[in-house]
Amino acid sequence: MKSIYLQTIIFSLFALIVTSCETEIEFRGDDTASLLVVNSILSPDSAVKVHVSESKFFLKDDSSFENVNDAIVNLWVNGSLYEQLLSTGQGFYAGNYIPKAGDIIKITAKNNKFPEVNAESEIVQATPIVSVDTMIHVSDIYPIVNGYGNYLDTIGYSKMTEMKISLKFNDPPNQKNYYKIAVKLNQEYSDGSKYMRNYYFSSDDLVFGNTTEAGIFDESSYRLYHEFNDDLFDGKNYSLKLNSSFISIVYDNNPSGGTSDLEPVEIVKNELILELQSISKSYYLYLKTRNAGSSVIDFFSEPVQIYSNIEGGIGILGSYNTSRFKIDIPKTFTGEYYY
């Protein structure tokens, strides 16, 4: 059951993300005043972009957020004003500056309705991936049949395949580090088309806690990302354990059972892209509290407070820096399955 606190923030925040300063929105039974909502996740991969909106009381009939397009949004880099971000519509403000590792980025925002709010975040250093090892296991095989009545012909097989991944990296010593791990599936086809998407995976690694023995009311351990910190391996090499599952469809010949003059479109490149993101504490706390609040663990548990580091308002200014590692996988691995 998602708590009222979580619903309040979900209706208020547009993007995703959170940190060193905690803002509590206490419900006393009355309508609460609106706050300026500022959200931005910074990365050396792109120029600074910020979303500004106005919070809305969660019991309103219309739970949608209100974009703010008349704000003055300033970007500060290492203590100096760098530029005023330009409104691009729908509450978004964009600049030209691409952050670098080690930068201290500050965002300020205000308009005629709301006083100035601000937040600050450091662009963290990326942690390189040292190596990746994989092990593939076929768990189930099902025949693919064609025909009617007593005339059934097996034309191929569908295989349920599990892949175990061990991702090794060196954790920087003498500092608190936070991480997010994500997986993408990249496919390229013989007709020149390309397809990339986030890929679900699971893990029973100790850094995530007990994720495999989910209770009857818990969500699946298969997710698009997992966040963790370096409490168990501070300053050491660590091999992170991940699990992914695929459906492999292999036909004996033409899958239709006949012939075709059309050239079949085939996968010519099939790969997983592992992304190890070094993330700011604010981003980590947001992900941690959001995931804790979205899982049904105990009907009588305390509501989860979503963190905010926007002084004078609500929202999140966080950062990440990504290391990537690509793994070629069999071209027959066409999709995912969960168990």
Describe the structure.
The protein has two domains: 4-125 and 298-319, no CATH class; 129-277 and 323-335, no CATH class. It is mostly beta strands. It contains two helices and 17 strands. The strands form two sheets. Strands 1, 2, 3, 4, 5, 6, 7, 8, 11, 12, 13, 15 and 16 form a 13-stranded mixed beta sheet that branches. It has a four-stranded antiparallel beta sheet with strand order 9-10-14-17, with no helix packed on it. It is elongated and about 75 Å long. 29% of the residues are buried. The two termini are 23 Å apart. Helices cover 7% and strands 46% of the residues.
What structural keywords apply?
7% helix, 339 residues, disordered N terminus, 2 helices, mainly beta
In short:
The chain has helices at 4-12, 281-294, and strands spanning 36-42, 49-54, 66-67, 72-77, 80-89, 92-94, 104-110, 117-122, 129-148, 151-170, 178-189, 194-198, 225-229, 237-251, 267-279, 314-328, 333-335.
